[in-house]
Batch of 4 targets.
Target 1
Amino acid sequence: MEAHGYSIANKTFEGTVGISRDDFEDDNLGIYAPIFQEMGRSAAVQPDELIFKLLKDGFTQPCYDGQNFFDKEHPVYPNVDGTGSAVNTSNIVEQDSFSGLPFYLLDCSRAVKPLIFQERRKPELVARTRIDDDHVFMDNEFLFGASARRAAGYGFWQMAVAVKGDLTLDNLWKGWQLMRSFEGDGGKKLGLKPTHIVVPVGLEKAAEQLLNRELFADGNTTVSNEMKGKLQLVVADYL
């Protein structure tokens, strides 16, 4: 990724709440405690929000090779040094006339992940409650803020496959086999294999059934579920 000039820039995230000093001092019912708890919760779930937004936006946002993260034209070159006439490679499985939400297969077994979260500064809670603070003195208001510096970005597209189709065994196998077929420049076998399946909340039931049932109906008989235990399920609340 460095060779392609791709980097992930950290961003500062901040949120501030102003509370009347009088109200805060008279808060006998604990009205403001949930506000601070929610600030902590928001900071804790933000990594999930950033990461799963990457998946959702992956069809329109570029990765290190300049193509969208999920794209049909990722260039793979015949020579190890990246020269020669590139062959377009897709990391999307599409079902005809499908209009629902996609699901995703990820290989998270490597040191570099398909989606990267980096944290430069963990969330910090800052309180301006000193009586001699200018804002407190002039406005009779306490300030409470949370600040963090972090970012999320795309890793290697070869480690992620988007399936725009119904969540079925057939489509799951298509996505699995697509990732297994990926090669690097020079025809190098990458040996990638999905470890996780990521689904939106609307597909949670179907995913649980698909991954955990021992048997499936096949016409007038039943067959064993060959996908049982192969993938770790991630139900993304923010997808």
Note: The two ends are 26 Å apart (CA to CA).
Target 2
Amino acid sequence: MFLVFLYLFLQPLAIIIMNHKTPSIKSILEASIAVKQQLLQQDLILEHIQEAIDLMVHCFQAGGKVLFCGNGGSAADAQHLAAEFSGRFYYDRAPLFAEALHVNGSYLTAVANDYSFDEIYARIVQAKGRTGDILVAISTSGNSPNVIKALQQAKKIGLTTIGLTGEKGGLMEAHCDLLFNVPSSDTPRIQECHILIGHTICQLVEERIFGATKP
């Protein structure tokens, strides 16, 4: 009887598993390419990329800095893009002042513990930011409270604000001078496009500032 019961219990589960279609490697790659193709067709995105390049070139040449913030994968993207500016991209050149705001673990845990996690970026923007600097805020949903507070603080003290988000934009839209809406609601696809946009900006900023330097 037990074996009969076990069979009757497991059979529907086995059918579900057999019928479940795991996405193929090819379909995942195709989905990623499709979003990038949509990105390429959006004139506003291309215009915003050029505007971001112009803003960053002016900022760096005036001795300013570009700050980055995000959570989770977007924090990793923030750190990645900051490193491309402060290290190098293609050119062997002087560093550009760019920094991801989450890299000091002691600071983050102190502020999160003593105030709240929502305040971690706003307070460091208040401390580091100066008029003419740029804050690049990354959030796939556009609704991360600590990112929104950072944008609000940045606007108060005269920073230019740039947002990288998904198709809906969320609350970020009201606080960004430039907003990049990736045409997708799929988090991995959005993040892939954020890096693509960031790399494009970094490459062309570097070219504008150090174009006379040999790579």
Note: The longest helix spans residues 187-210.
Target 3
Amino acid sequence: MRRITLALALGALALGTVGACGAQRATAPGAQDDMSLDDASAASADVSALTLSPVALLDQPVDGAHRAGDEAVYFVSRTGTVHRFVNDQLSNEPVLDISDLTEGEGERGLLGLAFSPDGSVAYLNYTNRSGDTVVASLNVAANGAFERGSLRTVITIEQPFRNHNAGDLVVEPNGMLLVPMGDGGSADDPLRVSLDDSSLLGKVLRVDAATGATTIIAKGLRNPWRVDLFDDRLWLADVGQNKWEEVSVLDSVSSRTPNNVVDFGWSAYEANDRFNDDQTSVSHTPPVLAYEHGENGCSISGGAVAVSGSLRGRYVFADYCSGRVWSTPADITSTPSSNASLASRMTLHFDAVDSPAAIVRAHNDLYVLSLSGTIWRING
């Protein structure tokens, strides 16, 4: 376990990076890698040499992604900008600025970025000035230039409250988008939408980027803030309500249709505990991992499967409140019946990282994004 202080990190950063600004309390992926668990399995048991290196500063970083044929990583600021990171240098000027379309306050802003399989199209997930979720696309030139003039709305989803917007998105190998949606906010799923098949809130959506056609492939989610698609499994870090933070896994993603929707239980359940008695989840699929509010934290920040180093073959995630960073084997298939046994699957690696909002994978590296401004690379 390593204890990290932001002051030491800032002192070690090179000049020329974007200046950080103070973080707000918030609930806090990268591109899909062509790799399977067979390639990334057998993680080393020796993770004692793991370290965190601060590599850049950015105002409220929340996501990062890479695109085919491009050595850069593109990091997202919740304020509405995207910055290019290459050779350990972050561009001072953004490659994309949509700050006029959004506002990065509370749980709103530019929240997600992904690229088409050939890297020619970027997809964004952001909240507009009215607070509704927008999934949009725009063209990206061969040299990595984002063509703002080509920005096009794919879908818009009305949000009833200011929070629980989720915000991530990933691209399947066939080019379809997977968009996780929160339950619309407030608290306790007041509109009872997560298990309601007529609502797009509290779901995982498959979206045709060309037509906007949308289908539901999973439901019963509260706020799956960060997700990771790996080996046809979608890892969902679902922020909890009163007691439990959860990691759920949607298996066999490519074969999911409206006829075999997976039900993760919220708000009939929080983890394995019964929650809203007026909600029914007959086929509740429990999380593969859960931890209780307290010393471990209060707001999970996913999360990506490591494909290199001593963490190879493990799903790595954090908690925004405690700053802890853990991992768990990425070949988990069984679901223990008790929340206590779920928590036993976690291996702690770092303690007290400042405000980790997300952990993303790009070009086989893992980055920890602190909402306070520091972008860290996990080494070892």
Note: The helical segments are 6-12, 37-40, 339-343.
Target 4
Amino acid sequence: MVVLNKIYTRTGDTGDTALGNGARVAKHSSRVSAYGTVDELNSVIGLARLHAEGAVDAELQRIQNDLFDLGADLCRPEMEKDGEAGFPVLRMV
């Protein structure tokens, strides 16, 4: 069982949050909303996978992996050049 002794930062809520590199953005920004929506979709697909089998489950797993990558791309600040972050930028086609 996980025990959380401290679940606060003592810095208060100033209405912003950190991106992948520590840059601060407003919690209501489009970027934060987008990766929150991607996470929510990924959760729903996880529930669907509980009832899926075979090829359907495999396809849902592939989609989940792509969504994890998309969420990671969304939570990092935009780079001037593709691949500047040290890994190739994924493109959803």
Note: The mean pLDDT is 83.
